[in-house]
Amino acid sequence: MLKKFFSSSAPQVVALDRRDADALEELLYADTLGNLYAIEHYDIYGLPPASASGARLTGNKLPAQYRGFVGIYEDGILLSALLLGSNTVPIWLPDDDRMRSHAEVFAHLIYRSRGSIESLFGPSECVLPIWEHLRKRLASPFSVRTIQPLLYLPPETNLFSLYSASLPELPGYLPSLQSVPESPGGYVRCTVLSDYDDVLPAAAAMFHEEVGIEPIARYGSNYRNRVRSMVSEGKNVIVTNDLGAVVFKADLGISHLDAAQIQGVWVHPDYRGLGLAAPFLAAACELFRERYPHLSLYVNNYNDRALSLYQRTGWEDIGQYSTIILTR
User: Fold this and answer.
1) What are the angstrom distances between the C-alpha of 189 and each of 178, 232, 258?
2) N-acetyltransferase domain location, by residue (predicted)?
3) What's the pTM value of the predicted model, to 2 decimals?
4) Are residues 228 and 257 in the same domain?
5) Residue 53: which pLDDT band, with cuts at 50, 70 and 90?
6) Residue 231 and residue 185 share a domain
């Protein structure tokens, strides 16, 4: 028999439905940039309707494979919330002595669903208390990244001098960059569907470098369709060379109203170390800011090169994420 995970006096977790919309939104929007992943999910899927009887799914009555928002109420107030899914994201935990017991309840839900949850990520102050309960009960995770600075690019940051300066001269053996008249810097552009075949290998290479997983082999058509959708919607900003190969890319990962999170920043290995990353990123951000003036991203604290790049392009530290990749 499995050791009892939490006591009978533990707080009760409930599946949230439309009756909880106002309470959930209060937690979500208390930290828009930190909760952007969960907010976008809420924008797209919302909450399910209440059951005809009004009864709620609670505690161990929640199916092991339940997917959606769950929360913990005390005295009629929603104090904690979690988005359960293949990527599980804690939204809020109380910052008092109730944090430990709430984190333990959420850890139990994740443990029950461990075979179908690939990662746990989000603001460190929520992720790490949950992980503290999980880590002794799970097999060794694939990757634990406890410190990931959450960065913000203020809308007033002037990037013009970075992307308008002449680019360094390329070595003669490298193909020249394609010109994009009237774009920032004259070389960045948003993708169109015809870019898919060129963007896919760049996206897969970046994913493998960052996560350590070969995404096409692991996720197959799901990954290809995800990339195709982003490309067709113009959610990638790219620089290409005269042969059509992607030299640089940055992705509009998630968004809500006027805020977006940048993901997948990547420079082709042949073009690294040439002083191109800062002007490319600055130009890409200028394009993104036409739609989303409030940009954020998060980065591993051990990635000194990336941290230096973001510092040079005006990003400011506003918080911290943590990511636990549970399965390979």
Assistant:
1) 10, 13, 20
2) 191-328
3) 0.92
4) yes
5) confident
6) yes
